Amino acid sequence: MASIDDLFKVITVSTPSRALSGLINGQKPYAPSNKRKFKISQDPNAVYKAAKTTVNGDVKSNGIAAVEDADDDDIEAGPALPPDEEEENIDDEEGRFFGGGITNDTVDVLNFIDERDKGDDAKAEKIDAAWVRRLALNFEKKISKNSELRAKFEDDPQKFMGSEADLDADIKALSILSDHPDLYGEFAKLGCGASLVSLLSHENTDIAIDAIEIINELTDEDVEAEHDQWDLLVDAMLDADLLSLLYDNIARLDEENESDRAGVYHVLSVLENLSSKTTIAITIGTDTSFIPWLLQRVQKKEPIITQNKQYTAEILAIILQSSPASRLRFIDLNGIDIFLQLLSFYRKRDPAKGTEEEEYVENLFDSLTCCLDEADGKAKFVEAEGVELCLIMLREGKMSKPRALRLLDHALGGPEGAACCSKLVEAAGLKPLFGAFMKMQDKQSTEHILGIFSSMLRSLPANSAERIRLLAKFVEKDYEKIGRAVKIRR
Length: 490
Known about the structure:
By secondary structure, the protein is mostly helical. It is 64% helix and 1% strand.
């Protein structure tokens, strides 16, 4: 085989440039000159004429050194190619080596280690009571360590930030318990539920928000927990003053900050989870400061209804439906008047469909509806001109029209609804009400209209001007209203 020197003996090597030679010799690089360099134009015709084709079809350039042809075509240059698979098998007759240079014995050892590691991993993933005890011990250690370092280095946050990051990681790791609700009892028995709740009072709001988020995950309705399992965990948290600490957090969080805004959402979500149990919902509505805060939050002006504002209205609706005591407290806080003012914005305007605003309006109507079942709610409704607002919605509203009918149905119902019945007649409400009755309505709206008629006929005093005006409406135009009622009855 020809040597490298023989193959390239006719190629002349130019001397290194001044810049390169300076670098080689350790000197400063040569600064290039600003002189314009000549550009060689490549004329295709000139190149074609300058080239001479040989008999073999080779092109030879005049005045340019070329590599001399070797005598043999079998001459190979450069590094040798890897051996073929057959040659490799011949060289490795005893099976000692593989392509990576590993012997059979070594491969067996590595396979054994891999199988051992897989077994260890599977064993570590076993989640049972023993795993919860280890988790609880480690969790308590992280809380204690962070508390000690915070107390010792109060003025030097760098000294306790590491322990805080470890604690944060351990809090988030608790989310795996939501997949194993059968361990809730053991978790609560070890005191971890109370310890988790205690972190809601942590000086670092990020730690508190993470703890609230985990509580939300553990108590979520999507968790496939039995009632007794859920009760064991929730009761332990309530005993650790969960509701009070949740309120303290929701009061200190600033929704202008994105993480705090998420924290408020998680608090509201926990309240929704807890309200799934009626006794807890009653406690939230009567024994805590949540209703005043929710009432204040739902009034906050926003250019676009945000998720938290909509969620606030939803939580209020859930709490108010839980007990008369919660409704009476809401009424005492002037909630009827506040909600009527919020709904007055939609007397002629509909919220966009499928938005947070639409759900927000629905929740406002739901809250008012359940409050109008109380005698005090009916009185406040008349006082705040709720009947007049509903009649405006009945005349000019679209999305609000069937909901206004539902409000009037509940407001006029029962013995305490006599004042609302008289107010409806005085406010010239018979015309729009009978007009809606004569038009095609959905079944639910028709039921509400018939309920209003029934309440008025039952509550308006005999021979009163309001009752006479009502009866006159039924007999006008050749008893067409009565005919419509008979048709509906059939």
